[in-house]
Design brief:
CATH superfamily of the largest domain: ANL, N-terminal domain
Strand order of the largest sheet: 5-4-17-16-18-19-20-21-22
Strand content: 15-25%
Keywords: Acetylation, ATP-binding, Ligase, Magnesium, Metal-binding, Nucleotide-binding
Number of strands: 33
CATH architecture of the largest domain: 3-Layer(aba) Sandwich
CATH topology of the largest domain: Rossmann fold
EC number: 6.2.1.1
GO molecular function: acetate-CoA ligase activity; AMP binding; ATP binding; metal ion binding
Oligomer: single chain
Family: Belongs to the ATP-dependent AMP-binding enzyme family.
Bound molecules: adenosine-5'-triphosphate, magnesium ion
Helix content: 25-40%
Structural class: alpha/beta
Number of helices: 21
Catalytic activity: acetate + ATP + CoA = acetyl-CoA + AMP + diphosphate
């Protein structure tokens, strides 16, 4: 690997074919801050079709938890994602489906998408679903998950997509929280060659949900399932004779579009509510600029529809822009760890967007599988979900992108609806590990804990001092929790819960959750920095770092380390790793403890749940908090039994 450089200027190749250059970005950003009403009004006209114009571009009072964008404006999101493209794109591919089994694929044109969505919408209507009703979607990653979301949007129902990997308890909690009366699911899903019993999970969940009157079942595998004539509806049979025409419901910009629960890394999941107008504008606009999307390109985001990334950047953003979006049912390692690259080759993917955890996993199996695939169609790479450690960034850039594709890092949250901080391709230099600069209209600031603004090169709490159209409007059913979680800490500002550093060029570097920023002997240190240092060591595959109370230093550094397949645990290696961090970051950052961790506790979206690791490091193993979103609970038991008990 080449020497790790701190900054990559935008290459000439990237500049030559991107929409933006640095001067355009600066000018547009300036206008978006100085004349937000003009800026957003123009963008809303450019990106979205409205039945009726809005009364006011924005009416926001963060102190009183009131956020309105384009209210009075009338639109329909499914119309914007489908119908308006039909005049020119009826026969263009809207969705490329790639099944878990590599021989299983399908292309769906915009016309076909229209017909599927209308039939689905008519089915929902037939079951009595009306504007404002909540519909739970618990599905595999197949085109029907998109049809279901858009069908809800078409009739003004509010969808709540629950990740298909969640268990009965998690589905039940989400159905009850939003009082969903209709559930859309499939018989089974297939991931990595294994079948997951979705329908039977739903059956178990709704046993305790008396208001659920209809379960619409898509046939995916044809596997055996229980059938309750009173409630269950076979999707393909039911839509067969339904009309492929369904007039879109005229929605106010501020009518809710969906509810989505956060991934639960820091606490109990929150039912984040997004509304029609601001959300779809923000999703479309960020998709266009951040991924530099061009007509005719094949765009692939590997997220699941159950996460916000799947909402904004598999379905809503790309389809609003008339793009071809790839929906992948499988996992990165099936049939082998070259699957991502094989799919890129097979469908000539131009833009590829994935998470650091996937990149690290694929990097650890070596370069050979990447090199075997023809990746010449790739033009741009993206990353989301957590800070990317520079080691993984370089592998992604050099081995996957052949040093030709800009990498866009994208910092955002379920709550933000779309990307807020990013290295806009062509306009902003790339610094491996930095999230980048604010998107248009986004006004980040760094605060100290008392709410004082920290200027210039600095480190602190990341807040947004102004609203943007894609911002969440409330927590479903609990407006006070919305206020308490995001707006109460620093009145008039949105608190992200993340810490960040700003460098001399105005780039933001996310240091992790605020709870994950350590203060070791007076040095503020992001857990992400120590983790990045650890994974630089050739024996380390993954690392998670937490603080614990330390009598002298304030906080001590406790690390969990997963070794590469070919490395083995030893006291020598333990000492070596501590010295390695001390050399990389300075003596103050030297870990106090390193515990070997065959696996790390992660959410189903692949995020490390440091709050659980913190409890283990603090030896408070009886109060781990909400563990319902853990991907594999047995990992935690192992870590508890192997924990280092300290004084
Ligand atoms: P919960 O809010 O329930 O604890 P969560 O925060 O994990 O769950 P998400 O909304 O999926 O749920 O994740 C958003 C968080 O992910 C951000 O606050 C940030 O900590 C992290 N994140 C996302 N993208 C990036 C990125 N590009 N760089 C650094 N961190 C990122
Ligand atoms: Mg969060």
């Amino acid at each position: 690997m080449n020497e790790l450089k701190p900054c990559y200027p935008v290459s000439d190749k990237a500049k030559a074919h991107t929409h933006l250059d640095a001067a355009t970005y600066d000018a547009m950003y300036k206008q978006s801050i100085e004349q937000p009403e003009v800026f957003w009004g123009e963008q809303a006209e450019k990106f979205i079709d409205w039945y009726q114009p809005w009364d006011e571009v924005s009416k926001v009072d963060l102190k009183n938890s009131e956020i309105n964008w384009f209210s009075g404006g009338k639109l329909n999101v499914s119309y914007n994602c489908i119908d308006r493209h039909l005049a020119t794109k009826a026969n263009d591919t809207a969705i490329i489906f790639e099944g878990d089994d590599p021989s299983d694929d399908l292309k769906v044109t915009y016309q076909e998408l229209h017909d599927h969505v209308c039939r689905f919408a008519n089915l929902l209507k037939e079951r009595g679903v009306k504007k404002g009703d909540r519909v739970c979607i618990y599905m595999p990653m197949i085109p029907e998950v998109g049809y279901a979301m858009l069908a809800c949007a078409r009739i003004g129902a509010i969808h709540s997509v629950v990740f298909g990997g969640f268990s009965t308890e998690s589905i039940k909690a989400r159905i009850l929280d939003a009082d969903c009366q209709v559930v859309i699911t499939a018989d089974e899903s297939v991931r990595g060659g294994k079948r997951i019993p979705l329908k039977s999970n739903v059956d178990a969940a709704i046993a305790d949900c008396p208001n659920v009157h209809s379960v619409i079942v898509v046939t995916r595998t044809g596997g055996d399932i229980a059938w309750n004539e009173k409630v269950d509806i076979n999707y393909s049979e039911a839509v067969e004779n339904l009309s492929a025409v369904c007039e879109p419901e005229v929605m106010d910009a501020e009518d809710p579009l969906f509810i989505l629960y956060t991934s639960g890394s820091t606490g109990t999941p929150k039912g984040v509510v997004h509304t029609c107008g601001g959300y779809i504008l923000y999703a479309a606009m960020t998709h266009k600029y951040v991924f530099d999307y061009k007509e005719g390109e094949v765009y692939w985001c590997t997220a699941d529809a159950g996460w916000i990334t799947g909402h904004s950047y598999i379905f809503y953003g790309p389809l609003a822009n008339g793009a071809t979006t790839l929906v992948f049912e499988g996992v990165p390692t099936y049939p082998d760890a070259g699957r991502f690259w094989q799919v890129c080759e097979k469908h000539s993917v131009n833009v590829f967007y994935t998470a650091p955890t996937a990149i690290r996993a694929l990097m650890s199996v070596g370069d050979e599988l990447v090199e075997k695939a023809d990746l010449s169609s790739l033009r741009l790479l993206g990353t989301v979900g957590e800070p990317i450690n520079p080691e993984a960034w370089h592998w992604y850039y050099e081995v996957v992108g052949k040093s030709n594709c800009p990498i866009v890092d994208t910092w955002w949250q379920t709550e933000t609806g779309g990307i807020l901080i990013t290295s806009l391709p062509g306009a902003v230099d790339m610094k491996p590990g930095a999230a980048g600069k604010p998107f248009f209209g986004v006004q980040p600031a760094l605060f100290d804990k008392d709410g004082n603004t920290l200027e210039g090169e600095n480190q602190g709490l990341l807040v947004m001092t102004a609203s943007w159209p894609g911002q969440l409007r409330t927590v479903y059913g609990d407006h006070n929790r919305f206020y308490q979680t995001y707006l109460s800490q620093y009145p008039g500002n949105y608190f992200t819960g993340d810490g960040a550093k700003r460098d001399e060029d105005g780039f933001y570097w996310i240091t992790g959750r605020v709870d994950d920023v350590l203060n070791v002997s007076g040095h503020r240190l992001g857990t992400a920095e120590i983790e990045s240092a650890l994974v630089l060591h050739p024996a380390v595959a993954e690392a998670a770092v937490v603080g614990y109370p330390h009598e002298i230093k304030g906080q001590g550094v406790y690390c969990y380390v997963t070794l590469m397949g070919n490395a083995s645990e030893s006291d020598e290696l333990n000492t070596e790793l501590k010295e390695f961090v001390a050399k990389e970051l300075g003596r103050f950052a030297k870990p106090d403890y390193i515990q070997w961790a065959p696996g790390l506790p992660k959410t189903r979206s692949g995020k490390i749940m440091r709050r659980i690791l913190r409890k283990i490091a603090e030896n408070e193993v009886d109060s781990l908090g909400d563990t319902s979103t853990l991907a594999d609970p047995s990992v935690v038991e192992n870590l508890i039994s192997q924990r280092i008990v300290h004084g």
